[in-house]
Amino acid sequence: MKMAIQRLERSFPPLFTELHGKVKSLEFRTRRNGLIEISARRKPKQPETEKQKAVKRAYGRIYQMWTQLSDEEKEYYNQLGKKEGLSGWNVFFREKMKGETFEIVLDATYINETLTDYVLFLFVADNQDLYNAMNDELTNIKVLDEDKTTELQFFRFTTKKESNDPLLLIKIPQIQANSYKKIYIMCKFTIENYGEAGENFFEFFDDFNDPTLSNWNVSDDAIAEVSNSKLLLKSESYKAGLTSKTEYDDTYQVIAKLTRLTLNDNYAALGFSQNIEDLYSPSRYSHRLTYFESNKTYAYAYNVETEDICSIDYASLPSQYPTLLRTVKCTHFMKSQLNRDSRTISNQSCVNDEYTHNIAIHVYKETSQSSEIELDFVAVAKAYPTEPSIYLIRKI
Question: Which CATH architecture has domain 204-382?
Fold first, then answer.
């Protein structure tokens, strides 16, 4: 066959070669009847690019969304399509593939200092249009700075939209004092963006993949178990727990994802403290903690110098998990936050930063049963005593 091809190549007139290219681009196959079949050489199939894969996945997600629409909603798109001679599905698909952009305006007009690396807690359900534009994994987004070009880091506190209150943490490099700050969220089904890993987003991050708990000092009476990248902390004594080996001066916040809390008429707490000590009679250590009783939650501060205890009572323990747990320490200021509920202690006599540099996780046992707290991760970020508020979220 090879010799036959070579003879055939020599026999082609120059005009044929000029018009049809090199014979090497052709395939020759001998059929059973002895005839030679000539066809263009088939190019090997190229592997799909990441962009092509993303488009294919986006198509699947959008089609799934279409099937979940009510008959009335489909009819709405059908009516839109009639104006252009398109089906309702085509109009719906085009709308979703085009994507949507949302403007978020933060009000910092009442803040007299420039904020750097400010972490914004954005509850996605605060805007129904934004919620609807995001996919189930909260991954079809880009977060952009005011120039609409620079991408901002974000961290997915929840990784499923159907969680009780989906939450994104967004790091904003700078917010000028006494100003409004704009950022943008672009939602598009061809975008796949899982956000930053915790260790790249926070000052400190432990998602408990290390069973040795090398970042922590563990008290003798604490039972600390790491399983499936979660920390389960139990107490076999009146005071037990963990403190971080790293100290955090200045103004910081501890952010935790609380996945389970079992108190059995005991106590648990998380925040900042230098040592594992009893909250009710701390002899020489200050505390800045979010503190749990059997049916209540407190924002709790103790000042060793004045021996004052300050606390603000929450209505009840969290009813759903996972739960955002946030404790902020600043000079003469403490904030405690469970999901959306936020409480502040700003009484100067009750707050002192001198001894509150370590992250602390406490569990206490006063009954025959142990108290337990389970955490998916613990992180530390910069904090400020006065924070900007969300002034506006709108689709543009």
Answer: Sandwich (2.60)
